[in-house]
Structures are given as C-alpha cells and as structure tokens.
TrEMBL record:
InterPro entries: GAF-like_dom_sf, HDOD, RNase_Y/CdgJ. Coiled coil: none annotated. It comes from the Bacteria. This is HDOD domain-containing protein. Residues 20-215 form the HDOD domain.
Amino acid sequence: MGERSHGLQSWIDRLSEAELPALAAVVQDLQQMARQDDSSVQQLADVLLRDATLTSKVLKVANSVYYNPSQEPIRTISRAIVLIGFENVRLIGLSVSLIDSLLGNAQREQLPELLARSFHAAVQARNVAGYLLARSQEEVFIAALLHNLGELAFWGCGGDQADELASVLAQPGVDAERAVRDVLGTSFRQLTLGLVRNWNLGELASLAHAGPAQGDPAVKAVSLGVRISEAALKGWDSADMNLLVGQLANLIGLSTEEALQQVLASADEAVKVAATFGASKLCHLIPQTDPEQIRLQREQRQARLLQPDPKVTQQALQELRMLESRKADINLVLDALLRGLHQGVGLERVMVAVLSDQRSRFSVRRAVGEGTERWLNEFTLPASQPEQPNLFSYVLRTRETMWMGVPASYSLNDLVTRPMREWLGQGMFFIAPLLVGKREIGVIYADCRLSGRALRHEQFVAFQYFAQAASRCLEAMAQKS
C-alpha cells in the first residue's frame, strides 16, 4: 500500500475507514452493550451473527473446556449467553475479532509478540481485579487487551511505514519513542487513545493510560496487568517483576510469595486463553513458567533467606527450661531466647526492649538480625504518656501477646505510632510482654521485614512459647534474689 499517513487524525481515518472498518464496527457495537443495562441477549446475538466466521469462532471458544467445563454442547449464540454469561460472550466476540483482523495480515514478528503480551496483560489484570472488584472484571480484561491498540493496529496495517519503522527500531541505541514520532507523526499512546475515543471503547481503556496514580481499583488492575506482562519478558526474577509482585501483594493483601504464585498461575492461564481463542501461535510468546527454572531461581533466593530450624527451636526451649530450674544469669536467658526465635523459628529481626530511665522510655537491651545494630545504639521510644499511648506500653499493660498486621489486630493499628514505624518499618510483626511476676520489664519484638515474607501461624505459636519461657526464667531469678 503506497499511501503515507502522518499525524494522529490521518492514522485514525486510515485505520477506521480503510484498514479495519469491520473490526471497528464490531468492537463499537460490542462495547456499546457494556454501557447499556438493558442490552438484550438478542442484540448481542445479532451483532455476532452478522459475520458467519465470527459466529463459528465464538461458538468454538464458548465450547472450550476453559469456558464450558461441563462440556454441554453449545450450538447457538443465545445458548452460549445463557450458559457462560452475557459478559463472557461479549468478551469472546471482541477478542476473536481483534485476533482475526490483526493476525490475518501479520507479516511482522512485532505483531504476534505484542498481541501475546496484550493477552497476558488482560488475564493478569482480570485476575487482579478478581480481588478488588465485585464486578466489571471482563471490562478490565478488555481494557488491558486494548491497552496497545494503536501499536497493534499500526503493525497490522501500517504497510510500508511499518517496514520503515521496523528497520529504524532495529538499529542499536535508537530512541524508540522518537523514531515512532518521526515515522507516524504521532505516538503509539496518542494513537491508542485516539482509536479508543473514535471507536467508543469506554472510559476504562483511556483511564488506564493516565497512570496508576488514579484511585480507581479497575484502573490499578489494568495498569498492574500491563506492567506485569512487560516485566515478565525480563524474567520472573527480574528487579522489575519483584517490585510489581511487592505492589500486588500490598494491594490484595497476600504475602510476596503468594502474590508471585498468583502471577505465575495467571501467566499459565494466559497461554490457555490464547490457545482457546484460536491464537495458539501466540502461546510460545507468553513467558513460560517452567517450574524447574522458577524452582532454581526461588531456591537461590531462599538460600539467602533465613529458614526455620526445628532442631534449634527444641534445643533453645530445653535450654530455657533448664535455666529456669537453675535460676541462671539473665544474659544466658536472652542468648537462648534470641537464638531460638532467630535461628530456630526463622524470625529475621528480634529485639528485647526494656523500660529504662526510671521507666520513662524503652531502650533495646538485645537485638539480632541484619541492620539491628542501630537499634542497640540508638533506639528509644517513650513509655506511654496517657495522651499518646503506644503498642509497647499497651502490650505490657494488657499482658497480651499480639500478632500485628492481620485483620484480628487491625483495631490496634493506631497504637503503632509514627516513631515506632520510623524505627521498625511497615508490615507484620509479633510482640509479647516480658514480665517478672507482676512487674513489667519490657517487650519482645520479632518480624520478617528483611525479605517481606508473611509471618505464619506456627511461628506465632512458637513465639508465644518462647515469651512465656523467658518470663518464667526471669521470675525464677527474681525469687532467688
């Protein structure tokens, strides 16, 4: 095709009228239905039935194990809507139209690569949305799928200019965004937004380009899905991916390990979805989650992390029992306590903070774990003044051992004061009172903040045991003196 286009409007006209009019029409009609609450089964069926190949492909996808696990045969569009839902059929129609229009004339490797990334982003985003939204997860899927619509349309229909851009981008050290502007007269992002507006693809598809700062959870889900699909190309253990997994964990309330599992499961699902939609040539372009590779990466990472050691736990508890009967020196008690909690239970940072200066403040008597030397020398926290209570004093007063950062303790979050957060950081921790009979001595604190791992129930149980054993030793010492 000899025609040259330059500038945003020129590309929108060309793509909508000359290159992709059928896609534009179907996509517009299907999107229109998302915004009309009274869209009927018949209207949706009518749009899909206009094109016989589209109808047969939608039915084929609807009959796949992925959408129809009961495998009850679906022979009509209206039956598909009843069995697998209006939104799912709309989503299938949209996705199949996109694949057909674009992969039909995919001469360049850029297009399948980008389409694979779009599918991966869509599945990641929908699964994040599953945690955040009661509905409109399909809308999130579509917004993520269309996130690079301008670039997809260009590589599919850009003719000579696509060849021209491909050869410019192949040169080492090229500024990609500038090259795109020179050849197209606009950016891919502007082209996407232009098509989204021109084809009425809905607010979510444009909002997602405004960046994740928007407070809307649907926008966050789209943005995360898109960024995860990009980071996956650098490796599941890349710095970018670690950062995104951390953000996901915070957003949906999982540990980083669980969030990574969620991301990997979504990548596997994306491969299934691409195959289901008849785009199996895209499957090998979605980063593989080969368990062997990931296991090796994870083992290397875990090897750098502290692991629980039941043997050390037992020995330390036995030692504390023995010290209780011998009424031993306080330093031996603290040695056994810290060794048991750190090397035994696998808690990365442990400290014993005691009341000092006429019981006016807490200072650190002993600490273990990376970076805790600073606590020993500098940590200080006022013992509660009535006007600003803090958790250290609260735990001593109520004699309760607490697991902070889980829903059961959310009501006490206000007691984690700013000075505490500045010293300890954000996230889960355990805290227990250290008592001699009725006399308040201080608190025992522990966390796994270095790796960001979630604390586990069995660690909390062991922490309680150690705290009680240490208090019994101190009580025995007091009686002896």
